[in-house]
């Protein structure tokens, strides 16, 4: 078994107006940074996962996303998995 | 009527919901009883007619509103009760929980103005043939209700095809309107799609609404328009009629 760090990013679905993102975008433009657009604000969740391999770790976290961490009606999620150093055999 | 009001950690309208139910029972059903139901309970009280999921901030709104409460032990029983045809009403946070657990479609997200909005709003009652609204005369201005809202995350949202399905099935029960009953963007306090304030499930026994009818049952505190919801339920339950809508 190995230890992995799962990093989950959850944002509102692109079809839903992200008013926080819009407000921040306006603020960036006010700060003379017109090159920036489409700001989306979401959640970042870190989880340590104990699994035989990275693929299994990702599957487990995706299941957690579908069941609890994200609401597919209003949110999109993405998962990245990194192996943690010092993993136990 | 026999009413169970669920208390989650962070519920803050449970006492009001019990009071409104007791007040209604005093008028319509002296034999009626109102029960406190704890979120950790594994059984609902026997022979309930109605379960109310009250307003508040269950589990501090962590993760998403209603997302954690939805997995409370009692919710399995509530879902079973609803699927068996029992009446379930979710108010504010209760509505959010009903959406999270899938008893009602859609979701509730941050208000478009990013503010907590606490004020009276006007609602247009779209149907008077439901267990939750039948005490309203269908053809009079009394279909307009003045009821308070108090929420930061009440923007009703759903994919367009789901919204069309809701409309097609006549599942929108309340919409935000102005004092003259007109549906305007200004009358929409939170940016809800199509001014939706409350919806009902296809079978007509589960209803969720963001406004607080339990806070408007006596004119002494500003409005008694919310009593309509409780009176309708009491009358429906007393008559034993099943105001179940067909899937049109």
How do you describe this structure in short?
The complex is a heterodimer of chains A (89) and B (248). Chain A has 89 residues and is of the alpha+beta class.
Q: Which class of one domain in chain A in CATH terms?
A: Alpha Beta
Task: Please tally the helical runs of chain B, counting DSSP H or I stretches of 4 or more residues.
Answer: 5
Mean pLDDT of chain B equals 94
Q: Give the helices and strands of chain B as they follow along the chain.
A: EHEEHEHEEEEHEEEH
By CATH, the architecture of chain B is named 3-Layer(aba) Sandwich
The computed structural class of chain B is: alpha/beta
Q: CATH superfamily of one domain in chain A, please?
A: Phosphoribosylformylglycinamidine synthase subunit PurS
> Largest protein interface?
A-B, 12 and 19 residues
Q: How many helix segments of chain A?
A: 2
Mean pLDDT metric of chain A: 94
| CATH topology value of one domain in chain A | Mth169, Chain: A
CATH topology of chain B: Rossmann fold
> What level of helicity do the residues of chain A show?
25-40%
Beta strands of chain A, count: 3
**Order of H and E elements of chain A:** EHEHE
């Amino acid at each position: 078994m190995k230890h992995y760090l799962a990093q989950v990013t959850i944002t509102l679905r692109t079809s839903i107006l992200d008013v926080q993102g819009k407000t921040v975008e306006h603020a960036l433009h006010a700060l003379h940074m017109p090159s920036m657009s489409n700001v989306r604000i979401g959640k970042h969740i870190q989880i340590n996962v104990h699994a035989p391999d990275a693929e299994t770790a990702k599957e487990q976290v995706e299941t957690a996303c579908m069941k609890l961490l994200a609401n597919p009606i209003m949110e999109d999620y993405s998962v990245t998995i990194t192996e943690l150093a010092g993993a136990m055999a | 009527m026999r009413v169970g009001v669920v208390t989650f950690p962070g519920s803050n309208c449970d006492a009001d919901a019990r009071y409104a139910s007791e007040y209604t029972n005093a008028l319509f059903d002296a034999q009626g009883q109102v029960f406190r139901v704890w979120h950790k309970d594994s059984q609902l009280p026997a022979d309930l007619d109605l379960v109310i999921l009250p307003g508040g901030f269950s589990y501090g709104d962590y993760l998403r509103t209603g997302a954690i409460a939805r997995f409370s032990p009692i919710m399995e029983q509530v879902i079973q009760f609803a699927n068996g045809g029992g009446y379930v009403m979710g108010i504010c946070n209760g509505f959010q929980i009903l959406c999270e657990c899938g008893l009602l479609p859609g979701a509730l997200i941050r208000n478009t103005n990013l503010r907590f909005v606490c004020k009276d709003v006007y609602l247009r009652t779209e149907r008077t043939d439901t267990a939750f609204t039948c005490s309203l005369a269908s053809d009079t201005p009394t279909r307009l209700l003045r009821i308070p809202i108090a929420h930061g995350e009440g923007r009703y949202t759903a994919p367009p095809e789901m919204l069309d399905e809701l409309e097609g099935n006549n599942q929108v029960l309340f919409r935000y309107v102005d004092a003259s009953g007109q549906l305007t963007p200004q009358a929409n306090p939170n940016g809800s799609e199509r001014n939706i304030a409350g919806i009902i499930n296809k079978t007509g026994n589960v209803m969720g609404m963001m406004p607080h009818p339990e806070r408007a049952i006596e004119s002494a505190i500003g409005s008694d328009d919310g009593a309509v919801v409780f009176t309708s339920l009491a009358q429906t339950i007393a008559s034993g009629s099943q105001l179940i809508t067909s899937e049109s």
